[in-house]
Specification:
It is built from 16 helices and 29 strands. By secondary structure, the protein is an alpha+beta fold. It has three domains: 336 residues, Vaccinia Virus protein VP39 (Rossmann fold, 3-Layer(aba) Sandwich); 119 residues, no CATH class; 70 residues, Archaeosine Trna-guanine Transglycosylase, Chain: A, domain 4 (Roll). The longest helix has 17 residues. Bound molecules: S-adenosylmethionine (SAM). S-adenosylmethionine (SAM) binds next to α6 and α10. This is RsmB/NOP family class I SAM-dependent RNA methyltransferase. Belongs to the class I-like SAM-binding methyltransferase superfamily. RsmB/NOP family.
Length: 576
């Protein structure tokens, strides 16, 4: 049944869409669509298709994306708790596909909470390179941090900042930037009726002003040759084509990048960038330039055929660098995506054609200036920081110098144990505590790239090469490994979820339908015979931390002793 749509919205769409208006309006009567994206950090797409208990059909523009049936309950399955997939609206999977992220890139997701697109980016990085994921809403960064941890991401830093504060720190630093901008959410009306009221409160004009400011600062952080993707889930040209026209007109170092349109996508309209139905003037647009080479979004045809002159056949190129996903032309709620590039620097008087090669050069300089990764025998190189001195935490109230209440960088968003307070309160050396835990329980940590950093008693594994984060509000300074505490190292839930089972000396795995798995997820103690545990190496003590897995995918820690497995799942991670 069609929702009561705002009159101004309907009138605007009639003007924009002309003869397609009726088809667009009819899409509001179509059933809601459900999507999930498998997490290739943990499971490859083919394996997932074989193992999935849900009724899936592929999403044409995203290799790891699938529609699932309305009767499926992917949020209520042990695989969800293992981070094997992320539940995501199908059209929302398009922007990251067009960002063309490669392993090793430095990537910024500027408006990231709750983390759908960040987890998609992290999967494309495959643990190599850096993901800086940020949102200016403190509360929302808690969900963001939790989703990053659930997905098992090891190379992300979570920040809670305004783009203007990030721009000087990361000027010209990123190979890829995603601006999934806050918007009036017109594409969400079918999925979430509360967006209709919200549209009436937050006008298109207000959103457009915020977007202009955000994307301007974002572009300052783009390295020469780097790619910026701007996306919204709204239809208004003022929030889409006009933003891109403004951005390009304001910075001659930026240019459009032609993109390949997946079936069902249509090209954004350059003329909508001049002026929109709401009367917001754009600026002059620029001519398009080179094609984006490796767009992974080349896929088989979608169910609905795109129609009209802008949607002819597969292999279509949008020279404007802008794509529209309309709900009446494909199976998704709708999105806008634009791809722009910062021109490569001239080399010997010529334009550098291989931006990646140039990036590698500048990266070496930064890496040389940074600390080497810590490995066995390099323990004393760990960077240890007093929380109050080194970084602002996830809580604005904690900017003082004592690092006291609420000051732990990365104060848990998830109900986990709070940080240990200021460095002075830490009885053990966090690096030593971590190392002795790793020696006793883990396999292969010497091979990890990155470095240890500590904030108070909390220990993180941070990706290499980052500039100093001093003065920024840091929610997670890297992969949160655990807390050195007063007596011994307590591993975090994030560590459990980021490990592979083969990296842990002592583990236990049950199948998804094993009642013990459900009991564990609900926080109960398990009773297991010693022979049921899998042990690599000597385990004469038969007690201590044990990685609990579902079908070999970690879901949390238990502490084993004398046939009993004490449940270490933090309250915020339990099945409710
Ligand atoms: C469309 S949502 C992002 C969804 C997210 N990319 C995902 O895929 O899960 C837009 C986000 O922008 C954030 N935001 C709003 N203004 C911002 C600003 N000035 N700087 C950074 N983030 C901002 C909002 O808090 C919101 O979480």
């Amino acid at each position: 049944m069609r929702q009561q749509l705002p009159e101004a919205f309907v009138n605007g769409m009639r003007t924009l869409l002309g003869e397609q208006f009726d088809a667009f309006m009819a899409s509001y009567d179509a059933p809601r669509l459900y999507g999930l994206r498998s997490n290739s950090l943990k499971i490859d797409p083919e394996q997932w298709r074989q193992q999935s208990p849900f009724h899936l059909r592929p999403i044409p523009w995203c290799e790891t994306g699938s529609y699932y049936d309305g009767d499926d309950r992917p949020g209520k399955h042990p695989y969800y708790h293992a981070g094997l997939y992320y539940i995501q609206e199908p059209s929302a999977m398009a922007p990251v596909e067009l960002l063309n992220v490669q392993p090793g890139h430095r990537v910024l997701d500027l408006c990231a909470a709750p983390g759908g697109k960040s987890t998609q980016i992290a999967a494309k990085l495959q643990g190599k390179g850096v993901l800086v994921t940020n949102d200016n809403a403190g509360e929302r960064t808690k969900a963001l941090a939790k989703n990053i941890e659930l997905a098992g991401v090891r190379n992300a830093v979570v920040l809670n900042e305004e783009p203007a504060s990030l721009a000087p720190v990361f000027a010209g630093w990123f190979d890829r930037i995603l601006v999934d901008a806050p918007c009036s959410g017109e594409g969400m009306f079918r999925k979430d009726e509360s967006m209709i009221a919200s549209w009436e409160r937050h006008s298109v004009e207000r959103c457009a002003g915020m977007q202009r400011d955000i994307v301007k600062h974002a572009s300052q952080m783009l390295a020469p040759g780097g790619i910026l993707v701007y996306s919204t889930c709204t239809f208004s040209p003022a929030e889409n084509e006009v933003q891109i026209a403004d951005l390009l007109a304001g910075d001659p170092r930026l240019e459009r990048v032609s993109i390949q349109l997946a079936p069902g996508f249509v090209e954004g309209r350059l003329e909508w960038g001049q002026a929109d139905t709401n009367g917001i003037e754009g600026r002059s647009t620029q001519e398009s330039s080179e094609s984006l080479g490796a767009n992974e979004a080349q896929v088989t045809a979608g169910d609905k055929q795109a129609s009209g002159e802008t949607a002819s056949a597969d292999g279509r190129i949008a020279e404007s660098g802008m794509a529209r996903l309309w709900p009446h032309l494909l199976d998704g709620e709708g999105h806008f995506v634009a791809v722009v590039r910062r021109k490569p620097l001239p080399v010997d008087g010529q334009a550098e054609s291989d931006a990646a090669a140039q990036q590698a050069g500048s990266r070496e300089e930064v890496l040389a200036a940074s600390e080497p990764p810590i490995g066995r025998g390099k323990r004393d190189r760990m960077e240890r920081r007093d929380e109050g001195r080194a970084a602002r935490s996830g809580d604005r109230s904690s900017r003082g110098s004592n690092g006291g209440k609420g000051a732990a960088a990365g104060k848990h968003a998830n109900g986990g144990k709070a940080g240990g307070g200021a460095a002075a309160a830490v009885a053990v050396d966090p690096a030593e505590a971590w190392r002795s835990f790793a020696d006793e329980h883990l396999i292969g940590t010497d091979e990890w790239t990155g470095r240890l950093v500590a904030f108070g008693s909390r220990v993180y594994w941070q990706p290499e090469g980052l500039p100093s984060l001093d003065g920024l509000r840091v929610v997670r300074a890297g992969w949160y490994l655990g807390d050195a505490g007063r007596h011994r190292f307590e591993p975090s839930q994030a560590l459990a979820l980021g490990l592979r089972r083969s990296e842990m000396k002592r583990s236990w795995s049950g199948s998804a339908d094993d009642a013990a798995i459900m009991r564990f997820l609900k926080g109960e103690t398990l009773h297991l015979a010693t022979e049921e545990l899998t042990v690599i190496g000597d385990d004469t003590a038969h007690k201590g931390y044990t990685l609990i897995c579902v079908d070999n995918y970690p879901i949390g820690w238990g502490k084993y002793a004398s046939g009993m497995l004490k449940n270490e799942l933090p309250a915020g991670w339990r099945w409710v």
